[in-house]
Each structure stands twice: as C-alpha cells, then as structure tokens.
Design goal:
Layout (H helix, E strand, L loop, with lengths): L2 E9 L1 H19 L5 E6 L3 H16 L5 E4 L8 H4 L18 E9 L3 H12 L5 E9 L11 E5 L6 E6 L1 H4 L3 E8 L1
Parallel strand pairs: 2-3, 2-4, 4-5, 5-6
Antiparallel strand pairs: 1-8, 7-8
Helix pairs in contact: 1-2
Length: about 180
C-alpha cells in the first residue's frame, strides 16, 4: 500500500458546518420545500453527512425529512479489485423510495463511479421521482458523465493527491485534509 504524506488541512469544523447548511438551503430552494424529499447517505461518511443535511432541512422546513443508509459495495464496477471478501454493509432505507425526491449524499466526488453504483442501488429499491447528488467535496477527475447537484467545496487536486474527510461520528473530529501519495 502506498504511503501518504500530509499536505494541508483544507476545511475546519465550522467550514463543514457551513457547507452542510448551505447544501441544505440549496436543496430546499431547488425542490421548493421538503415535501416528498428523503436523504440517503453512501457508506461510510455519506451517512453522517446525510443525517446532518436531513436534520438541517427539517429545522428549516419544520417537517421531518427521513434519511437512510446505502451500501453500494455489490454495485461497484471494480468489485474484483476490492478483494476476495469485500466488506458488505447494510442498506437501511426505512421509507418507500417510489415517487420521492431522493438526495444521495457522499463525502468526496471523484471519478463518478461511486455515484453510478449508488444510482443503481437506489433504483433497485424502487422508482424515485428523481435522484439528486450532494457531496461535501468535489475533487474533479470525472471518468463518467455525472455531476453533483450540490457541492460543499470544489477542491481541484492532482491524481497523486488524496482528500481525506474526517467526521465526528466516524473519526472523532470534523476536518477535510489533503494528502500526497508517496511512491
């Protein structure tokens, strides 16, 4: 496994809080409210981000916005490269996706392959009215013609760099860091 070297801390806890709030406001504005809206996070760090966004939308609109957890492991096009025994987590979507507006949430948007797998996983659960994509960080380098509808922060990177998102719920702190892959 290649070694990583820390380069910079790009987002602090307040930056992440503001980005989540801005995304929530944009979702409400684009959807003209939160009626028939649900938020689904992609394992792992998309889940707490989805929960935060759903909570913020609920605060803004005064209605409960459901959130769910989506595992895309078996939908990945690189499953054979992941390993002989890939870690499969639970998909928990405690609501009917049919005819709902679904916002799929992930932490880092890179090639677009995770988003494609997420679309396939969601559609297997039913036929939503539409699916929108929200990401905390868009780092560029798309390989598929997919774009995010809501972006917390655009951070252009080189392919030798890695964006690490840390969240309180999974890592004990909120931060976005830039790392360099050392040969």
């Amino acid at each position: 496994m290649p070694e990583l070297e820390f380069k910079a801390r790009l987002l602090e806890p307040d930056d992440i809080r503001r980005a989540v709030s801005r995304i929530a406001h944009e979702i409400v504005e684009r959807n003209k409210g939160a009626h028939d809206l649900a938020v689904v996070g992609v394992h792992t760090r998309g889940i707490p981000l989805a929960d935060r966004i759903a909570a913020r939308i609920s605060e803004l609109e005064g209605i409960s916005v459901p959130s769910g957890k989506l595992d895309i492991t078996l939908y990945r096009d690189d499953l054979s490269e992941v390993g002989l025994q890939p870690l499969v987590r639970r998909t928990e979507v405690p609501f009917d996706v049919a005819s709902r507006r679904i916002v799929m949430v992930d932490d880092v948007f890179y090639t677009g392959r995770t988003a494609r797998a997420g679309l396939d996983a969601l559609i297997d659960l039913g036929r939503p009215a539409n699916i929108q994509l929200a990401v905390l960080v868009d780092r560029g380098h798309r390989e598929l013609p997919i774009r995010a509808d809501y972006v917390g922060k655009n951070i252009p990177t080189s392919k030798s760099e890695v964006i690490k998102v840390k969240l309180l719920e999974t890592d004990g702190e909120d931060a976005v860091e830039l790392w360099e892959v050392r040969a």
